[in-house]
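tool_call: predict_structure(chain=1)
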Amino acid sequence: MLFLAFAVVAFVVAGLMYDDAHAPPPPPVPLAGGLWPAPAPRRDPLAPLHMIVLIGAGCGCLFYAARHGRRAATARVAVRIENGRLYSDLLHDAGIGSLDARDITQLLVDRADRFPGDLSVSVGLGARFRHGLYLAYRTDQGPGVLRLMDNDVDGGTEQLRRFAAYLEAWRKPAADQARQA
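tool_result:
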């Protein structure tokens, strides 16, 4: 709701700035001795830039409102573990239905900018403020990576840490069974 409110405020302010820019000049002021000319309008030279920034911010807020609203409305589980297998829509989108706990090679819960791999400058700046779960895995199709960010999960960073501990509890018995076999 916060992002939706910010979007409404941004669009309303941009609309008011547009109306103000296209308003007719004020009428002359009548005085006893004659007419004074209307004061010259002081138009802000950066007004078009302000409007573009406000509209962009409003669209960004609408994006986040839709993203979080969809997540809240669908109430789907981001990742789940059943019988030692990891299920996720992100894995399904990558062409993998599920992942065995033994196939997870690396498990990290940290700030997103500390994860392995290169990040662009803009993504790296945003990643400093986000925490996430990084899962590196190997399958018959090759190695892969699954990243979950704290804003994708209800409960945020604490929920990711609890899930990582739960996943680690599944991984240890699976690794012990693999060594015994």
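agent: The chain is about 45% helix and 25% strand. Proceeding to next step.
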